[in-house]
Amino acid sequence: MCGRFTITVTLEELITHYLIDDSKLATLKPNYNVAPMHNVPAVIASDAGKRLGELRWGLVPFWAKDEKIGSKMINARAETVAEKPAFKRLLKTKRCIIPADGFYEWKKDGTSKQPYRILMSDGSLFSFAGLYDTWEDPEGKKLSTCTIITTTPNSLMEDIHDRMPVILRPEDEADWLGRDNDDVESLLKLLKPYDAAKMRAYKVPSAVGNVRNNSKELLEDIG
Length: 223
What we know:
The protein has about 220 residues and is mainly beta. The chain contains 4 helices and 13 strands. Belongs to the SOS response-associated peptidase family.
């Protein structure tokens, strides 16, 4: 499961990193504790190039009766994403990148759980593999939402948790976003654990467990 992450870069850094052609975001505040049902920056491919906008985290399929289902669909499993009714159509047609610079996971320690922040070794920006959809309420109001795909853990993560988010290799990002790419088998091959040698993890304060806490102090390495 991936239930919390961080995105603390500036809007300019995000636009430069992904070579964005069209940004719907006017500002981007650092978020040290992104949680489900938050609006998150996301990158999709459009006819005009890469587009940066916001999606609400927690997928609401277009056919859902109401939006409440979103809180239960924050993740999609790589092993079944091509089979589940909510995801298989999106895998072919509505893929996105959700930028992050770290994510949190909790390791069981006896009767308690210790939160960790997991990130690239150099602290750089990286890309979650995501899917998105647009739902419309009876009044015609549209809601665009997303889910983050998860996979089996790499050697760094397996000591912390039995799942990890799919982080795309930089060289695979274009294939994932490609609007003309509907080859399910090749897409599924991109959904694999990221190279553990390029990542690191450290313990963070337990305050990250409360979604109301959102400050730089949550990033502190408490050893």
